[in-house]
Amino acid sequence: MKKTLLSFAILAANLFYSQVTIGTGTKVDSNVGLSTPISIYYGYSLTQQIYLASEIGPAMTIQKLKFYVQNPITSLDNTGQIDVWIGHTNSTGFQNVISPTGAAWIPVSQQQKVLTTGTLTYNGNEVTITLTTPFAYNGTQNIVITVDENKSGDDGSSYPFYQTVDYASDVSLINRSDYANPDPLNPPTNYTGPNSTTSTTEVQGKKYKAILTLIPQNLGVADARTVGDASITPNPASDFITIKTKLTVDSIDILDMNGRKVVKNITLNNDRIDIRQLSVGIYMLKINYKEGLSTTKKIIKK
């Protein structure tokens, strides 16, 4: 049992503290207007990028996406109204055919919408998109990230995004235009290969994608002083756990490591909840407060 709990502890450390950066270097697209994940140089853009399970690692709940640009940003006036979807996929690249119907977008209906009409933040060379709905990555499949930028106007050509080295096949798609805002539910399908100008109706593929850091929710010991200062004892536990907090608990949900609710709407009984029905493993305890706030804690069932 001690070895099992040690393994859980090591796994928890990886899950709750690690952030993953995919890609290195200072490569930029020679055509600044075709930068993924968004085209800062054009009024509208729609992109998809595939990141591989081998690049991501263990399961995590993704809270933020961080990208990198070549020059420190001083202002971004026209980049906003961003919609983002993330989904699991078994595809390792886009199977495109140069034709009016050859662009092989992965439908957003197969993905989870994680941001609606959001904005990005920037600090120096870093551009961060904070998701309003965190994405529970399962640790085994690849992921596809769709970014739809809907605000007209452009911010010039000074901020190309850093891109990864080439892959064997196309790992990103982009459509951008100053005049027509592409519809992610019905995206343009005229695939013109890697060397087109990509006009309003054209889609270009690339063998590289934006360098990306995936930032998970911090659900480990470091969150001991989050909303409500909730404390969990004992942890690990086998039967009951006691929750102490300064705020008033409304209900509690227990989630597995894929973000699925295992038990929901639990009420406290003398500050305790019963976890005997849970299988041995690691779970997330979401505490919902009557004040309208919530916090999430990691627990280990032994």
UniProtKB/TrEMBL annotation:
InterPro entries registered for this protein in UniProt: Secre_tail (IPR026444)
Coiled coil: none
Domain of life of the native organism: Bacteria
Keyword Signal: yes
Compositionally biased tracts (Polar residues): 188-202
Secretion system C-terminal sorting domain segment(s): 234-300
Keyword entries, A-Z: Signal
Annotated segments matching region Disordered: 180-202
Keyword Signal listed: yes
Signal peptide: 1-18
Name of protein: T9SS type A sorting domain-containing protein
Source taxonomy: Bacteria, Pseudomonadati, Bacteroidota, Flavobacteriia, Flavobacteriales
